[in-house]
Amino acid sequence: MLIFCKDKILVKDASFDFDENYILERGNINIINTSKNLPDIWQTMPSWADVDMIESFLRGEKLISIREMLGLCSDEGKAVISKAWQFRNWFKNIFYCSHCGGRLSPSEKDFGRICDDCGTEFYAPMSPAVITAVEKHGKLLLAHNVAWNNDRYSIIAGFVEPGERLEDAVRREIREEVSIEVKNIKYFGSQTWPFPNSLMLGFTAEYDSGEVKPDGAEISHADFFTPYEIRNMNIPDSASIARKLIDNFLDTH
Ligand SMILES: [Zn+2]
Predict the structure, then answer these.
(1) CATH class held by domain 127-251
(2) Could you check whether the bond before residue 162 is cis, i.e. omega within 30 degrees of 0?
(3) CA 100–ligand 1 middle distance (angstroms)
(4) What is the pLDDT of residues 91-108, one digit of tens each?
């Protein structure tokens, strides 16, 4: 049982091993078990409870942000928490059919929901996004987003648009944000990112042509940086695939 309290999750602080510490049975919390009264298939869904507040903590327990938790737990833990968190948000925010306004009920055959009135099927929303580490002569492209209040730098990312191949999304995002062209796009790996429902698809690419010119709207500054410079910069934390891509560059240079 995962216990969510606003944007936090209840954990034990002794260690961050998933199995022992994060599926907690808490008899003294008024738990709304979302798995109750659901069709059989939903019993394989990690069960979660949503509480407004926790009045008392057992020894060693605390609430930490889900984002922080994803940086601390195993891949298995990440998968379970991300899945539960995204389904929790879907259930919490969406009640009715967008075609006819009928009520949605959990499907008997999969993790979808079906309109009681018109029978339309719905599935939990997911938004694929590409994120790319672009290299040029031993340097890595990093950019500062206008929305960030600190001196943080990261690699270029953006959502995939309908009808677009992933490679096209990589080229478009980089072209839009910093005005350069890239080549030799290679898949690196993926990561679930449930804020709110992204699937991050990581790539590496090589600089091809053009001059780095930030768009000013999303990116205020961007440049290619040496490994030495990057090691002294404010870059994303280890929970993100952005950091894994940056670390991959640093490990090979
Ligand atoms: Zn309907």
Answers:
(1) alpha beta
(2) no
(3) 4
(4) 889 999 999 999 999 999
